[in-house]
Amino acid sequence: MALDVIQVEGCYVSSCLPKALFVPSPSSFPRSKRDHVHSSDVLYFKPKKKTVDAKSATPSTADNGLPVAGRQHLSVQTDLYLEELCDVIEEADAQCETDPLLDRPPSPLFVPAKSGPDVATQIYPGELFDFDEEVEPILEALVGQTLEQALIEIMAEEELAVLSDLQIDYEARRNAEVAEVKRLEEQERRLSEEKEKRIKEQEEAVSLEDEVAKKIVACIFSQNYLSELVPQVYKKLEAEGYFEVEDPEMLEIEEAFWPWLMNEVDSEIATLEASCHLLDTLIDDSIQSIAETSVIQPEKQNIYPETTKYTSEEVVEDAEVNENTEPNNASDETNEAI
C-alpha cells in the first residue's frame, strides 16, 4: 500500500502521541456515518523515499525487528468485534427507616411573680356608668342624623318635582316652537310653490300671447293677400268660362225658400210626433183603466160585455183614424206650401 493509516487506541497512547495522529478507522464507523467520511478528514503519513547508496548500503532495521529512529513499537488492538463482559456483579438489598419530625411545643406564657399586697375596691351599680346619661348624646346624634337625612330627602324630592315641572314647560315650549317652525316652513313652501306656479302661468300666458299675436299677424297677412288674390282668380275663371251666370230666381229659391220650407216641415213633424205620443199615452191610460175596472167589477162586465167591447174597439179605431188623417193633413199643407 502506498498510504498507511496510523490507528491508535488507549489512554497511554493518547498521552504519548500528538493529538493530530488520533484518527479513527473508517471501518469502526457505523455504516450510516461511514459514507460521510472523506479522505480529506483522515490524516495520512506518506513515507519518504530513501535513496539507496551502493557504497553505504547497510542491513535494514526492519529485518531485525527494531523500530525506526524516532519511533517505538506499541501493542495495538486490531480486533474487529468487541468482547462481551460476563463478570457477575455482586448485589445486596438494604433498607432504612426514619422517624417523622415532631413539632416544637408552644412556649408557656410568662407570668410574673406577685409583688405587693392584694387590695379590693367596692363599686356600686351605676357608679362608673349610667346608661340614661350616657345614651343621651348617642340618641341625639342618631335622631339629628335621621332628621337631617329626612330633610335632605324631602328637599331632593321637591327639587326633582321643580325640575320635572321645568322639563315639562321646556318640552311644551319646544314643541310649540317646533310646530311654529314647521308651520312657517310649510307656509314658505306653499308660497314658493305658488310663486313658481304664478311664474309658470305668466310665462305660459306670455308665450300664448306671442303665439296669438303671431297667428293674428299671419291671419291679417293672409286676408290682405287673399283679398286681392281671390277676386282676381274668380274673374280669370269667369273670363275663361269656368263659371256660368246664375239665375236670380234659383238663387232666391235656394237662399230663402228652401230654408223656410225645411223649418216648416220640421215644426210640423215635431207637432205630429207630439200628438202621436199624446194619443199613445191616452190609449195606454184608457186600456189600463178598463183592465182595472174589469178586474174590480167582474159582474158589471158580465152585464154589459158588448158595450165595454164596443167602447174599447171604438177608441182604438178613433186612434187609428186620427193617426191616418194627421199625416194626410201634414202632406196637404206641405203640398200647398210648395
Automatic annotation (TrEMBL):
InterPro entries, per the entry = Radial_spoke_3
Its predominant location is cytoplasm
Where do the coiled-coil regions begin and end?
167-211
Localization (cell): Cytoplasm, Cytoskeleton, Flagellum axoneme
List the GO terms this entry assigns under cellular component, sorted alphabetically. cilium
For region Disordered, the annotated ranges are 316-338
Q: Does the keyword Glycosyltransferase apply?
A: no
Keyword tags = Cell projection, Cilium, Coiled coil, Cytoplasm, Cytoskeleton, Flagellum, Phosphoprotein
Q: Which family does it belong to?
A: Belongs to the flagellar radial spoke RSP3 family.
Q: What is this protein called?
A: Radial spoke head protein 3 B
Query: Gene behind this chain?
Result: Rsph3b_1
